[in-house]
Amino acid sequence: MTDPWVALEPGADPSERARMLRLAHETFTEAGTVPRPVRPVVADSWRRSARAGVGPDGSASVELMDGDLGVYRAEHPLARVMPLFRELLGTFAADGEHLLAVCDAHGRLLWVEGHASTRRQAGLMNFVPGARWAETAVGTNAPGTAVALDRPVQVFAAEHFIRRVQPWTCAAAPVHDPRTGRVLGAVDITGGDGLAHPHSLGFVQAVARAAESHLALLAPEMPAAGLPELTALGRDEAQLLTGGRRIRLSRRHSEIMVLLTRHPEGLTGDELLCALYEDESVTPVTLRAELARLRRVLGPGLLASRPYRLTVPVESDVSVVERRLETGAVTAAATAYSGPLLPASQAPSVVRLRRRLADGLRTALIARRDPDLLADWAHTPWGEDDFEVWRALVAARPTAAARSRLAALEAELSAPGVRRRGVAAPEALRPGP
């Protein structure tokens, strides 16, 4: 095999290879060993699938439906390149009786399009929009494994971990945010044995690269009507995008801007003092000096006084998360939440808002019981000691690693003088007495 990521070497008999793979799959499910001719990438994926508790007779579950799916798809970055995917892959999929599929970074299928009868057949195994095809949910499969490994991969026949998927062949490649390098999801082509060819893997890889290039050419997404945008989640110093400028604000200016975006009607000097400072000895003169400096940073016309207020609406990532939670779009809210609000801030009003937003999201995640979303939260600095989230994760996906972490937290919490924490870090996120 010249390329370990391609399922069949030139000249190989697909039928014979499929037969050998079925025997190898039976050996693995019965004895836990992986015989030849299983590729190393597939063998590693089978082992990960087994460790994740995936059974060979399992099936995908549909987790995003109706309004939640619609909102999430509309706001997902890959929605901007769906016309490109359809142009490059749509006709190929329809003419070849294949399917074009696009998933998010969690392996959830967002779009599944192509030949009508093939779509119906794929629907029998829940290969449909909204279904979770992460490797940890349904085992080895091209879109889920491509996202897990962050590289293009082809999966042929009985290389699929779940038996009901083994009549299919698929090739997928991850798509990255060109600005941050973050995996946004994957583009996939799914169909019959004819896709077990190096060209199909190279094709989807080229399409993924074209999508990344297209995203790089698109102007950054701006709020409605070109309004300024404040980014304050997961960073100690907020960033303001306004008039084509990216302004990095100081910590105090970040706090002021967060509060003013929350109060479009404005705040008096006394209200801002109470919101910003625990120390009652701080004088109005100090605050006025900070506001004067902020006005110079922002430029003319954006910050008014008497009361202090922003002259135009400013969109913020905090508001985006709140709106999505209010509409029940929990997955979309979790995607938009990049960390605690100004985590180093001790401004009383910011601390309260930070706690309320984090607690609201984690409560929604626990209620949703989505193991991927829970795992994402549990493996962040702010969620690594979150007992309730780890407990929910173990209930949803009882892996050995998750059970071990939960046991460690239980032992820690049983120590004298230790009380249960909701969100452990930073300190301001911990629930009060």
Overall description:
- This protein is an alpha+beta fold and 433 residues long.
- The protein folds into three domains: 14-217, GAF domain (Beta-Lactamase, 2-Layer Sandwich); 227-316, Arc Repressor Mutant, subunit A (Orthogonal Bundle), CATH 1.10.10; 317-429.
- Helix content is 46%, strand content 12%.
- The protein has helices at 14-31, 40-51, 66-75, 82-95, 116-123, 135-138, 142-149, 198-217, 251-262, 269-276, 284-298, 317-326, 330-336, 348-368, 371-378, 387-396, 400-413, and strands at 99-104, 109-114, 153-156, 169-176, 183-191, 229-231, 239-242, 245-248, 303-304, 309-310, 315-316.
- The protein has a five-stranded antiparallel β-sheet, sandwiched between helices. Strands 8-7-6-11 form a four-stranded mixed β-sheet.
- The longest helix is centred in the last third of the chain and has 21 residues, at 348-368.
- The radius of gyration is 25 Å and the shape is elongated.
- The N and C termini lie far apart (62 Å).
